[in-house]
Fold this protein.
Amino acid sequence: MVDVGAGVVGVGEGSTNSGTDSSLDSLLDALAPGGPAAVVVRGDSATARSRLLDRFAVASAGRGAPVLAGTAVDSDRHRAFGILADAVERAVSRQDRGVAARSGHDALLVLRAVLRSVHRGRWGPEACSITGVERHRLHRALCTALAAVAGERRLVLVLDDLHLADDGSLELLAHLADRTDPLLVVSAEPVARLRPLLAGAVTLSRVPAPAEDIVVPAVGADRVELLWATAVLDGGDPELVAAVAGRDPDARDLAREVVGELCRAGLLVPHEVTGRLVYRHRVLREAVYRQAPPGWRRAAHGRAAVLSRDRPETPPAVRAHHHERAGPAAGVDAVPDLERAAELA
């Protein structure tokens, strides 16, 4: 059963290094035989929670544990198994750090192929809908591959912002916990959405994380909409930033300067898998995003949705996210993109 609050680990909310080290030690204790099925990292600072999970993933891999670490984003609500796909892509790109066995690496490649097939719709409409029997068959296949990744060791799943994950991911985690013995370490605020699917499967303990401040660089009035556009896109492509901001192509140079400032401030970083510039954490992106007036945000999402149609590499889930944020007032025909995202969800 889910026992939120049971087995509470008493570490402080301070911003000192000793507090961070204490939190990390508490998480590492969960690796011991007989440890909990799951640990939920709680705390006021989402960026601090993420940093703690990153440190835990690296330390766990250093101790020989097979680790898969992924992060959910807003658009993952429209993307089947998005957080797991992110974890698998990262593990493959890192050349399976923490998954040393050849069989484990092969299983990672199988996992990646299956998840990419789901997202790109190569199985046809029956499988892409992932309902009924097909959903359970896919769960079994994914769980078998995850068990092969772990081998004889206990698999460690480190999942940041799990509350943003799609329902399929939560169902899969419940299925996995029912049949194997993974250690699930997650960051989630709030946790209420996780309880129904994880009831009877895992025990949740709370580990507070230390806090940190968010500093957004100031920009001039002629650049502020370009700053906001990077948050709408969660990216730093100057051409796209200028277009989503509603500026003419000549604004690309200004957009490039804004992106450079965000990189120097540590807000934009290269994505671990794709290499494209993204916000280091969703909370940093949100801090910039909320500066923009609601009407401007809706119009910018509408422009982003239209632009994404000319870019085949844009996932349907991202297009659906822009349509959802734009709303009907944006005057953009959302039906084709929403239908496609629904097929793959």
